[in-house]
Prior knowledge:
Helices cover about 30% and strands about 15% of the residues. By secondary structure, the chain is of the alpha/beta class. The protein has 2 domains: about 5-145 and about 385-535, 3-Layer(bba) Sandwich (FAD/NAD(P)-binding domain), CATH 3.50.50.60; about 180-380, no CATH class. The chain binds NADP nicotinamide-adenine-dinucleotide phosphate.
Amino acid sequence: MIAAARAEALDVLVVGAGFGGLYALHKLRAMGWRTRALDAAPSVGGTWWANRYPGARVDIQSLEYSYSFSESLQQDWHWTERYAAQPELLRYADHVADRFDLRRDLQLDTRVTGARFDEAACRWQVETDRGAWSARFLVLAIGPLSSPNLPAFDGLDRFAGQVLHSAAWPLAPVDLAGRHVAVIGTGSSAVQIIPIVAAQAETLTVFQRTPAYAVPARNGPLDPAWEARIKADYAGFRARNRRMYSGFGCELSPRPMSALDAAAGDREAAFEERWGIGGFSLLGAFPDLLTNLRSNELAADFVRRKIREIVRDPVTASRLCPGYPIGCKRLCVDTGYYDAYNQPGVRLVDIGADPIEAITPGGLRAGGRDHRFDTLILATGFDAYTGPLLRIDLRGRDGLRIEDKWRAGPLNYLGLTIAGFPNLFYVAGPGSPSAFTNFFVAVEHHVDWIADCISWLDARGGRAIEASESAEAAWVAQVNLAPQRTVFTHCNSWYLGANIPGKPRVFLPLVGGFPAYAERCAAVAERGYDGFVVR
Ligand code: NAP
């Protein structure tokens, strides 16, 4: 690890040591750029460091949710389960940092507070809580889901018990035995937390504003035969996945027809088969489930029937059944979520109908009723995509502040660059397909594209590269138009910024699939970085 922070002149400063930042450091350094990475956390791992709540586990199979850039890494690493749990993912991040000797250029416990583009020097001057840095290029790999959403509940500061947030879980183990626990939220984090807490706590009360759709993970030990088959041609498996809409799932094809055209029995069999396979596969049963509301309703109805089969109390089951299209909010992948509501100490409270009025010293008040508990878990998600960037005092050309630039939404080009912010790139940011893509496929693509762009600029003697405002406007128009042809605009979700009061309602990730996006990025590069201005 590098010694004390200092105003060191670098070619590239990478912010973030999650899976995007680690690969950026490895790739750019291997290309000969003087590169350092910083992270606010005391460990590598990014989201898998922060989200260490009980039950945290990836929702894409680990043989797919992992790096492809090193054949020896992907051959040597063995995942113990089909879907790795958070500790194993953290071990993987640590292994990568050690294996590629990344720590010597990595400074942890260092939060970037500001960055200013110095036009005369054509460099980014970066402020941290541990000193200053100067770099020609700034690569922000700070994650789309790294700024926790802490709702401003009245009275939260007067709660007498323990308050925990899923995305900022304490390092020390939390013993919930004998406790009366409340969980606010029913998104992916809560869906993983709830079955574990239900098994440990004396009582559990879940406060649900909007029900989630959850499908079984069917997690278990990794099948050695499957692992051997994939490893026999891992590169081919990765290449096939990169041609998939979401960068994973190449071994399952949808039925070649609209869900509406399938005979009722065949359709039910297709949904049933995918429910048995587990994970996101259900949404891939027919090609039009996310683009046709009537097709979507058939899948939604299938899951609602499953909920009613699993949950014994009909009132609770009914409350758990969502009324919006399935997949509109990110589908949750669970292990025992619905079954948890069959346990005697578990209660579901609908705060969609009766919103929380206040947190009280002994619990909370909603709909005129007091609910008592001693431990409060906020599984209330993130200020997605824009939150992490807006926490940094980022100033581009002419002192342009990111908060002014993004007042009405995150203007960007290709989801990688921002007009007015030369030589700045970000990984898995707004305008990129990251939320709909296997994160590893997304970040490897972004970093490779950024590395090529920097090399291209340098080879032709350019000092700075920046998106043009016209290219940016056209890109943002596309990002906003694409979801209109899908089910994604038919509910309130973090994709739309709808979970954060006052946040502009614009669609944040790019809809349209990873392959089309990658083709577009390649075409931009082939045409001499079309849409960019070089100085
Ligand atoms: P989330 O999906 O945004 O869920 C947050 C929950 O908190 C929602 O149920 C939301 O209700 C509720 N909520 C937020 N503010 C509230 C308020 N003021 N009052 C009452 N309820 C409130 O967040 P998340 O569960 O942390 O997941 C975010 C994303 O992280 C996921 O979509 C996924 O991409 C990723 N993730 C993945 C995994 C995995 O399985 N690997 C696990 C966790 C997270 P509304 O729905 O009404 O807004």
